[in-house]
Amino acid sequence: MIWFLGGMLWADQLLYEEDLGQTVQDLVLSDNEDYVAFVGSEMTYLLSTSSWETESISVCGSYDMGGAVFVDSDLYIGCGDGSISKYSSAGETTQNALSIDSGAILGLWEYNEVIYALAEQESGGNPRVHSVEISSNTEASGNYPSTLGYSNYKDGERFGNFVIVAHGGSSVSKIDLSTGGASTDNIGPTSVTLTDVLPYEDATNALIAGGQGGVIRFLTASNDTQYALNLIAFEDVTALAVRDDLLWLADENTLRAYSVSGYGGTIGTEEQDTIELSAVDAIKEMGAIDDYLFYVTENGSYGVLSDLPRVEISSLVSDWDSEEHTLTFEADTSGEYDL
Q1: How many C-beta atoms lie closer than 10 Å to residue 33's C-beta?
Q2: Helix and strand numbers, DSSP H then E, in the chain
């Protein structure tokens, strides 16, 4: 078992990496920051941020998984048959916990105890957004399901009562969850490849990984896109995350950090940190919890980075009568450690 401990500051480094052995559709963080979920096509993996152990779960039977969202401590996962399964914090699996009239589910989000699901149409055409109330398992009608103006799907995130969806290329959709109304981007850069939408709490606008275009900003008020960070010749920016007021970019197998403030409104142009990774696959998504930055590639390799040292415990011997405990461990950084 690997533990990360320490109270001093070091340079960011790759602490741990592993191969999940399958393609990954999504990376989702729990609200209480206890888990990181890697949603694979056949299996979903839960990485505990307390024990650093990985648990595999399967909730869709023979169907592929697509999209996930934590509601409180429960994880809802979309399935290829249009159903939504639940994995509870108690370790119980409920298949078909929620159902919608659709094809394969692509993405899931939650707002005010309602699940919003982006799903394919069984008869073909552009994907649609469905709204289903968790407590009653009732799908909303009227303006729902809401048909998007673009096909394809790369990623999506919720910003207040909006969901912003990147379709690849320069195409972006905005869904107003209160009305079900769907809008498309009006004007902006076209020589971009939009993929990962940055989950940034309380942000007014959305930042999106833009390939060789760097970082793209989507303005929710006008539905326009604009360059947010393109002054540097990037190779291929595929994923974004924010940790400790730094915006991290996955640029091929290099992680680059820039200062960020105002919920993404202001991004510095001077590189603050750089980490070279051994991953050869494109990084699909990233996320941050406290001192740790997580990434996952499209083929299922994930890594954990931090400026804290890596500590591996080899043995713990306790004498409860004398209340003496002997801990043996190895660390990649010298210093004073507190347990």
Answers
A1: 15
A2: 0, 31
Name 25's Cβ contacts closer than 8 Å, sequence gap at least 6.
39, 40, 41, 64, 65, 66, 67
Higher pLDDT, 58 or 279: 58
Task: Identify whether the C-beta of residue 299 lies closer than 8 Å to the C-beta of residue 281.
Answer: yes
Residue 293, token pair as written in the block: 């930055």
pLDDT at 1 over 60: no
Rounded Cα distance between 325 and 55, Å, is 29
DSSP annotation string for 195-217: -PBP--TT-SSEEEE-BTT-EEE
Q: How confident is the model at residue 11 (pLDDT cuts 50, 70, 90)?
A: low
Chain centroid to Cα 124, Å, comes to 27
Find, among 11, 14, 15, 6, the residue nearest to 272 by Cα. 11
Say how many C-beta atoms besides its own lie within 10 A of residue 136's C-beta.
9
Distance of CA 236 to the CA centre of its chain: 18
Q: Between vectors from CA 233 to CA 17 and to CA 210, what angle results, nearest 5°?
A: 65
Output the six-digit token pair for 113.
């105890």
What does the alpha-carbon distance between residue 256 and residue 246 come to, in Å, rounded to a whole number? 9
Query: What pLDDT, on the 0 to 100 scale, is given for residue 332?
Result: 63
Distance CA 193, CA 171 (A): 9
**Tens digits of per-residue pLDDT, 197-253?**
998 877 889 999 999 999 999 999 999 999 999 777 899 999 999 998 899 999 998
pTM value?
0.89
| Burial per residue of 219-257, b for 16 or more beta-carbon CB atoms within 10 angstroms, e otherwise | bbeebebeebbbeeebebbbbbbbbeebbbbbbebebbb
